[in-house]
Write a structure and sequence with these properties.
The complex is a heterodimer of chains A (378) and B (355). Chain A contains 13 helices and 13 strands. Chain A has 378 residues and is α/β, with parallel strands linked by helices. Chain A is globular. Classes of the chains: A alpha/beta (378), B alpha/beta (355).
Amino acid sequence: MTSTHLVTGATGFVGSALVLELLSRTKDQIVCIVRPGQVDAATRLQSALLSAAESYGLLERLRRDIFERCRAVAGDVEQPDCGVASPEQLTCDQFWHSAASLRFEDRYAAEITRVNVQGTAHALDLAAKVGASQFHYISTAYVAGSDEGPILEQKSSSVRRNNYYEISKAQAEELVEADTRFGRRIFRPSIVIGHSRTLGATNFTGMYGFLRKLEVFHGLMQRTQAGLMQRKALRLRLDVGAQLDLVPIDRVVENAVTIALSGRLSAGELAYFHLTNPHAPIMEQVIATMFDVVGLAAPVFASDKSEFDWIDDKFNERIDFYRSYLIGHKVFDRSQVARIVGDEPRKPYELPNHIVEQHCRWYLDRLKQERAGLPATR
Amino acid sequence: MIDQVFVVGTGRCGSTLISNILRLHPRIASISEFFSFITDLGCQVSTAFPSHEVDGVWLWRLISTAWPRQNLMIRHDVAMDEVLYPFQGGGAHRFDRNSGVPAISQVTLPHLSGEPDALLDELEPLVCALPNGTPGTLFAQLFELLAVRQGSDVWVERSGGSLRIAHRLIEHFPRARFVHIVRDGRDVALSMSKHHGFKMVLICFQLLETLGVDPFVSMERRWEEDMSDDLASLLPETFSREAFLDFSTPPPLCGHYWSGEILEGLSTLDSLPKDRLLTLRYEDFLTDPAQTISRLIRYILPADPGDEAAFVRRASSLLRAPSTRWIHSEEKARLQLEDACQPGFSSLSARGLQW
């Protein structure tokens, strides 16, 4: 029996991969709410899906499905009913809400709230109007804020969150938790990286954003004093021995779809799933690899700031957003995922240094191409 | 043949004083801040030194355009103190904060003439008619026009922070001689941290690197969300005087910048034969003005420095009592500054210059 999925955020990193996974694994129809940009919603959706399919080596297999089974509806999660003009004309069984703002600076606070919190309220209302019985919310594992130790797949009770992004995602979870009109699944990916086989990614926040910060800092210091960052080892605050939970995009969406297809939840039922990496790499190894790829001297890891010099202080200020990833031994429990998904192959999750390096170089090569035209100042 | 001399330094090293001193000498054409402004504060160096031949029309466009960074500063009333053109409006001057001020009119022409607009008009046909050549050839011909116009035997170009482009000057002006002015990096850094021009340069570096494009050339803002809140208020389209004044360029950053300039600059100047380089300490102008000004003038006019004693007397009147501000910083700030300046001092020390 086929059903219809309605997806928000389908032009984003997780959303587009999710749509491709649904196309691969089902014969279902997929309706995507897409905010028109410089082009209309349908063109924007097709472009995003084709680009994602190409990145993941799925273009040949899914090209036809993208055109035949995906439909764009113009909308905007910031608007009531997600900006859909005639919601009563839509019907769907499964509602996937993955639209989100991944911004974090203070100046975006209002936008983050509008998209992530009010957007979720609008998505819940729309889901009810289109008759959805299942509401799947793509949240983040980092609603755990500053909590340390085992993080369970349950309602987050963290009292200390690090930025507007984490706060907004936690508030959105509360909205989903409070709405008993549907069976609800809250999916919490950790730091999503490119495809485990092709390395491809379509959005460059998370690990890529950190890598970009390193590249920018390197470039800036190079303009300030050429060669300094090859001579000086930056000191970085992080918890040595902790894991950095990077998880390939294909593992995230494969597990999300497996779980969604495993059975329906009754109205009022609620389940949480950590779409994280059961074999996450050790943080300092990943960070050292990233420094090496960018061309920075090997970093020195510190548990506090007591030995920081001025440059260390400024560098750590610049990466402050990533503190919640770097500080605190978090171990994301995956019992609920394992219960449904069962044994998974280890290999796609494993991120030894050389694989981390491949992911980093994949992105850095593209970034360097973009930045090749930067003018000389000397 | 008109002699060619460049005064180079890190910026905030006292080199403006040298331009002002040299302007007092009737046989020297003091070309001030030419490269600072035609490169729009050093952010379009490649545009000013293309690798291909250029013509007079190209040069005219380069010097007569009101480039965006320097005019953004004028428009928001945060222009550098060095800007001599009376852009505040009033009087009979042609350009103001709304029209923008051409690069060569910001400092270079008003430094030479009380009527910079007339001088600009006078230059246009002469510059446009210059024959094709390398950028250096055309710059030299322009400087020569200015020197001949006032009966000078030599032109001396000096732009703040031009140590940064010393390698290009050496390449494009193969017979030019150089004066390198060096000042205690700790005082330089303190001065830079408060100087609007250097603040703008360091802001532009951050904008460039964070956005991955030059925001004064491209409207691409893909990585705008990576910008800190304070930097996001300094894009060309969001720039405000308040945000600029609030933006911090701390002394240690300027200290690292100074060290970088010294390391790279000394390495570049090492390639010059001894007779093409004179290195002077700024502090010596203040503590021993007669001897230091004499060394300078004898180097610039080796055949006949003219009435040296009279010139030294006039030039000395521009000098102030020496002062060292960095030692008054609080201990932590002082240590950070010394740490930042240490590589620069080591490099100077290896060449016999001590502080």
